[in-house]
Write the structure tokens for this entry.
Amino acid sequence: MHSELEQLLILQDRQQKIRQIQTEIKTLPLERAHLESQLAVTAAGVELLKQKGRQVEVERKRLELDVGVRTESITRLKTQQYQTRKNEEFRAIGHEIERYENEISKLEDQELELMIEADKLKGELEAADKSARATKDSISRQLADLETKSKALETQQAELTNEREALASNIDADVLDQFERLFNSKGDAAIVAVEHGVCTGCHMKITTATAARVKAGKEIVNCEQCGRILYLGAL
């Protein structure tokens, strides 16, 4: 194998690893945002239940106040009824008292329903709050793991970059330039093996003359089809 090909293969390995790490680093903010979104949804669910609980309590107190107002009205009407000496007025006040009593009965039924709903919401809130605390703990750990992963990837990237620079400094500038252009344009590999007379980059058969040059290993040889640099793989 041509001496610089060995260096280029090592260089390519390092650059592929750097590219992979860069891809992983780019996904970290998305993972972080997803976890934070989960946390926000959980918190919003708990807050919604709290809000419903507050609304039920406000409505219950309103009903309680309405019952109190009607109870006072009944007390006042009974006093008037006791004081009147007219049968017609007595009966009219009696009907009014009965109407208020019916209204109170309905209000108390509604109040009872709200109390049952409040108890149900309390149970749901306790369960949701417990789940939210567990979710928060889990997401906090995952966020911490992401931070650790981010630092580890940045360290690996820095180490590989330094190694890549050291390797590149020992390669001919023209060969390095060709390699870089191919690596950036092909998106997978600039240097590929020839196996059974076929370029493993574009999967096209190379000419006999090209295969012979690759086998000789005395020069940098490119695939006639895709332009990738070739080295000898399986015969």
Summary: The helical segments are 3-83, 87-168, 173-186, 208-216. The longest helix spans residues 87-168.
